[in-house]
Amino acid sequence: MTxxxxxxxxxxxxxxxxxxxxAYTVFKxxxxxxxxxxxKGNSPxxxxxxxxxxxxxxxxANKDAITxxxxxxxxxxIQQPLSWSDPNFSLSSYDLxxxxxxxxxxVRQTIDSTSLQKHVAEYFxxxxxxxAKTVAAICHGVQTLAAAEKTxxxxxxxxxxxxxxxxxxxxxxxxxxxxxxxxYYKTYGKGTENxxxxxxxxxxxxxxxxKNSLGPGPFVVEDEKYNYVSARFPPDTEALAKRAVELVKxxxxx
Length: 254
What we know:
Layout: E1 5-9, E2 13-15, H1 17-29, E3 33-38, E4 45-46, H2 53-59, H3 63-72, H4 76-79, E5 82-83, E6 96-99, H5 108-111, H6 114-123, E7 134-138, H7 140-146, H8 167-181, H9 195-200, H10 206-209, E8 220-222, E9 228-231, H11 237-251
Parallel strand pairs: 1-3, 1-6, 2-4, 3-5, 6-7, 7-9
Antiparallel strand pairs: 8-9
């Protein structure tokens, strides 16, 4: 039996190590073949501020996540990723596409890429049940999806139920850390909109479709019409990845 295939699109630098490596480990442990893609096929690295230094110790990944991240870096798949800007690249062969988040400004490479947006716009409709494709996203990864538009000019998320990084969390940590991290926690710079605001603007009925929680426990939102699951921030990663695995197995049953 062929192993399910998962793809993790990444910026060359800047994704959150927990949101990337913990999910990667869940997928591998479930028997998935995991591949990576960057814009030009450069081997990606996660945000070092979440791994080292004072910011890493106070706000970053825990020891388990860092261990998983270092193990992930040994995988030939991340050392030689695919290029989503390659004319022959396609998402069609993957059972799962997972979008991690991150605060570093370099992650804008995934959010702003018109070629990646095009691939997402072609892939996401295939997740509509009983479709066999699945998408999972967390934090700024949801913003990447929000930026991808269908042919009628609406985001692929326009009719889905989703969550993302809560505005209250993003604003709170921005002001808390601004004295020593500047505008680090605002990926597009001081004064720009929160991820939650950006995502809500792409929904047909945001008050009904956008789900929120400020609690510390794992929070994963699953859409009813699509094989799509979303989450907020690093502590949600494992639960999100495990539910994504379950969705893939459920949707690909013969």
